[in-house]
């Protein structure tokens, strides 16, 4: 039975196995992140925040495992860890940063870049000094002669 199990007593073999697992995890996380982004997170807000936090946490774990893999490669006498570790780290960093930015975007209250300009615009609306959609359509014609939509 022991012949079927890898010999993990040597740092180089353990480092190799850990690197393979790390590479697979990075590929899976990257694919799931891409799918989540394509879906545009069309979930209720609380679920979206949970998903974003889970992606960020998984990326953090991946970064910790990558550091362990680097240390194992160093302990095995290898001067430089394989490039697969650096590639996995890039995936974990990108997913972690993007997930955190999206979470912050969804939780931070909106503030106008120019509060005074916003207030002037709102005042114009209250006083009726704005164009209606029909007035804009009459003024701006589509180059083909059709109404702009």
Describe this structure in words.
- The chain has 149 residues and is mainly alpha-helical.
- It has two domains: 7-107; 111-149, no CATH class.
- Helix content is 69%, strand content 0%.
- The protein has five helices and no strands.
- It has helices at residues 11-38, 45-75, 83-107, 115-126, 133-139.
Condensed summary:
The chain is 69% helix and 0% strand. It is an all-alpha fold.
List keywords for this structure.
single chain, 149 residues, mainly alpha, 5 helices, elongated
The end-to-end span amounts to: 71 Å
- Secondary structure tally: strands: 0
Strand proportion? under 5%
The major pleated sheet works out as: none
Report the uncertain regions: none
Rg result:
26 Å
| The number of domains | 2
Class inferred from helices and paired strands:
mainly alpha
Report the helical percentage.
55-70%
- The coarse overall form would be elongated
Mean pLDDT: 89
Count of DSSP-assigned helices: 5
Q: Would you spell out the secondary-structure blueprint of this structure?
A:
Elements lengths: L10 H28 L6 H31 L7 H25 L7 H12 L6 H7 L10
């Amino acid at each position: 039975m022991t012949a079927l199990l890898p010999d993990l007593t040597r740092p180089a073999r353990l480092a190799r196995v850990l690197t393979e697992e790390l590479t697979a995890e990075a590929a899976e996380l990257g694919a799931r992140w891409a799918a989540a982004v394509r879906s545009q997170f069309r979930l209720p807000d609380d679920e979206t925040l949970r998903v974003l936090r889970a992606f960020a946490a998984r990326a953090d774990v991946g970064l910790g495992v990558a550091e362990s893999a680097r240390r194992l490669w160093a302990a095995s006498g290898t001067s430089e860890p394989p490039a697969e570790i650096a590639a996995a780290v890039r995936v974990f960093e990108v997913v972690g940063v993007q997930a955190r930015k999206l979470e912050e975007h969804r939780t931070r209250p909106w503030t106008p870049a120019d509060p005074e300009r916003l207030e002037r615009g709102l005042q114009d609306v209250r006083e009726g000094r704005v164009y209606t959609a029909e007035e804009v359509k009459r003024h701006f014609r589509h180059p083909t002669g059709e109404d702009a939509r």
